[in-house]
Design a protein that fits this description.
19 strands; 4-stranded antiparallel sheet; Four Helix Bundle (Hemerythrin (Met), subunit A); 3 domains
Length: 452
Amino acid sequence: MTDEKVPVDAEQAEADEQPQQPRADEQQGTDEQQGTDEQPQQQQADLSKLPRTLWWQYDETDGLPGVYIIDQTRLPLQGDVLVCRTLEGVILAIKTLALRGAPALGVGAAMALAVWSENESNHTAAEEYLAALDIAAQKVSEARPTATNLAWGANRLCDFAHDYVAENAESPDLLVNLKAAVVELVQQMAAEDETTNRAIGAAGAPLLAEGSRVLTHCNAGSLATVFFGTALGVVYTAFDQGRVSHVWVTETRPLNQGARLTAWELSVAGVPNVLITDSMVASVMAQGWVDAVLVGADRIAANGDTANKVGTLALAQLARAYDIPFYVCAPSSTIDSTLSDGSLIPIEQRDPREMEGVNASGIILPDNNDAARALDTLTATGEKELKLKNGHQMLLSRKGGAYSFDAWFKTTPPGVMVYNPAFDVTAARLITAIITEKGVFYPNSDGSFDLA
């Protein structure tokens, strides 16, 4: 019941190099429209090459279930599928950002508990099982403190389990049936997530005028969900309707989710996009080249104050200064009605190393037998850590017929102080509208929202 990494050795310009992951064949775009000389064919986003971000699957060899996760730390040039068969394995994927994005985290939290239920729980009494499940749910909920969807997904599964036991207490096969029902629930949640995201896209697309130039931050696309996306879900839907001409993509320092993930997604889907540094936003807006800003959310307080990837607050303030609509796109599960305003949202502090250096990963293809033998020797017993100067680090490992490296290169002076919050909070008064699967919510006269 170990956790493992399934490698994909070829470079990943497109996700069709990942044979392990199921395709969204039923979502491969709409049928081609018949164009005429008078009415040009409308270009459509092609989502068929985007992978599903996570899914539940049974191993063909041993029959054990696992949570299969696209490792987002290694996209876009290298693709790995993580196979997590334990609760701790999924939690590690969440903490390291291999799995990220509010909607994906909600489903991931539930799947973490389901894989614990199937592979790690050996309880024979329902009461003991439920007590241990509650402890496991607390652990996964605390993996990233700002992301309210983690707790939402874990609590939904726990509530289901407690209700199931109460309603079927006399069943002779109570735990066997409960565990099967838990697995069925997480698969249902995964399907619901895509439905929710498509509803967000349908609600938000009409807000954009024909040919809009949209700016987005971080990644609120398909990779942040099970499939389709929130902010990018609006983009994909609007693009199909001719409402989006291209997307400005911020790089999103320090981990470059915009540059690595969003630019990749849009390019694979055939949506025109331009990558800019975070500090270029004001200049682009000043030129009049942005018609709307679309972002996701990791937690929304009851009044509409929104926590999202750090840098979102600056975007909202710039959008207000240049009179550009600023839209937050998120499922209703991201709304935390227990918090009256954004000052109560816990802000996650990340590892200083994320700012002290840069990560790099890739595939080594030896061009002669001597190089192959040398690499074989280095990796004969597994991963090999190479000792580098100045705090740099590099790991080598065997990847089938090739070799992989993961490296971290220090770029800052020794002893520099680092402040690295993962999120900031955008005041509700700076938000033009909040788009959920339930529709579009506009602020009250005082700038707050009623999101119930």
